[in-house]
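Input/output pair, single chain:
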Amino acid sequence: MPVLSAEELFEVTKRIFEAMGAPEDSASKVAEHLVEANLMGHDSHGVVRILRYLDFIREGKLDVKARPQVVRDGPTVAIIDGNWGFGQVAAYMGMELAIKKAKRNVFGAVGILHCNHIGRLGAYAQKAAEKNLIGIVACNASPAWVAPYGGKTRMLGTNPVSIAIPTGGEEPFLMDFATSIVAEGKVRVKFHEGKDIPEGWVIDKNGRPTTKPGDLYDGGALLSFGGHKGYAISLAIDLICGALTGAGCMVGSKTWIGNGVFMMAIDVEGFTSLDAYTKRVRDALNLIRSTPPAEGFAKVMVPGEPEFESKKKRLKEGIPIPDPIWDEIKKVASEFGVDIK
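Output:
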């Protein structure tokens, strides 16, 4: 299994996207985002996505040269048309705009339509927290992977949500998860690695539980986390990110809608002083950390801590890429004339 530094993996990824025809700034932004996902331990949203993005290009869903544009702009709300370019490029633009609006008017909200896969949502929410704002990001997603509670047919995307909260310290509180029991990308990683998945992640096309990741891609479906509760949150995200933004709801959609994105930034100082707020946050999080760990756990952590620990470790030791995935990436690189070891 090759182990690469973040810098090495970034250069390889950037060169591949440039060879696909992406402008240098877009290639750099997407490569940085994918490598950051690997650093944070979310390999399902890391450089393995090169393979899926190539599929999108070949299917005519992704235009690597396209630029997002603001099509509606008000004091607190904006709509961005991603023009079917890289989702990350549109999403970073969206959060930057939401932050500017929140700094002026306490709240800033941005919707994005005609947007491809935006990757790990926590990256955008964290941008707000780094500016001492609360960041909220959610998206619906094409294609449908998730069966509604009690059903066996795919009707919903994995519909993730992320919330980042400033702590007045180096690292924010960072919540980021799919409303499916697991992100589709994690099943895809197991599929590429030739490994089974835990029971409870996927049902096959007949609605039966399965441990074979390939069954998902043969008419099966992911399940929501928490049964009917996760399903309800997933459906709410589809209605907000699809209907409100104009991107379209995944439910009943017969066409590719990509990611309908909703993001919001909230200026804490519209409610209270930043120092008072972050002290309350730190006090609460420290109390959580002081909880005696249950059997089998070394300590109690708060959301975001596993990711930040992973980043520190991988910056020091490198990022491992499973052989089957690295072999596929090398094939893509070779196809586009990019020479990598």
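The mean pLDDT is 96. The longest strand covers residues 107-113.
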